[in-house]
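Q: Protein A?
A:
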Amino acid sequence: MNASTNFEVMSQLKAKMFLGDQRGCTETEQFRRYCTFNFENYYNENKSAFGNLAVLNDETLAGGYSAEFTTRDSYYVLLLPVAGSLLCNINDSEISLVHPGQMAFLKILKNNHFVLTNSYKSELINFIQVWVKTDDNARRLKPEQFSFDIEERKNELIQITPQPGISVTASIGMFDGRKKAACFSRNMQSSLFAFVISGVFEVEHRLLHAGDGLALWNGINNIEMEALSNNAILFLLELE
């Protein structure tokens, strides 16, 4: 790609930031939830869903506590434990524990419910919960769990790819300060959402701190990022 073409791609790329300190927050003695987008009782006209990416919550549950959800539409649900292990039940059918270093991928059909439970009696757990809307309201999928080691594969993005035909792909990586990486999209028509779990990053010349999100769309090909702190963790979603 020559310089003029590269400039043209950059000029067409669109972006929107979602700052962590502007997220919606719901908190009780049993749980705390930070919402990047509108969710349940939290609403802000500037925090509507990003395409099919309807939910990106950073959630903390107290020991032994459960949170129950019912979906009005069909969704792919990604569960990423950050600290502590998480138990998920779909329609009262138990699923194995999901631990840090794993991601659970579920499909929840319209008007179904699922329950997320802290498996510890007294310790807090923290996890990322993502919902991606799908128009496939009939096909059931067996829940999947993916394992990864961000410390052993430090300074690279680890792609987590569900079975073929799924409209979302996730990537995660832990980086030392000043280490760079690139994300190559599967489809130029895809959109990308970057979320910083910890540390500081620069993604496409935009500074992101923990809890910040960045939506990118319109001609995505090669997205560049750089960690600006040690042990910084970035979570990426590519949405077709």
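Q: Protein B?
A:
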Amino acid sequence: MGLKSFFAKLTGGPEGEAEPGEAVDYQGYQIRPQPKAKGGQFYTAGIITKAFPEGPREQYFIRADSHASREHASEHAIVKGRQIIDEQGDKLFRED
């Protein structure tokens, strides 16, 4: 492993998706923040998961909101994930 890939693993970047954060339960769903690093900033992103009788379903989301730290982007991803769930509920997983 080269030095660049070693640091990329440590920091979740410099560009790309970071490792998912700790999942938070919300109204039967799980929200896992997964900030996306780009240009020294971290974009709000995450994964919403819900268990259904036929198996678990996941939906990735990303927003244009950027933050100086991974921690702030993760916190904001939880807020945005809750908002998405409140607005869309199970429609989030509908395949059109």
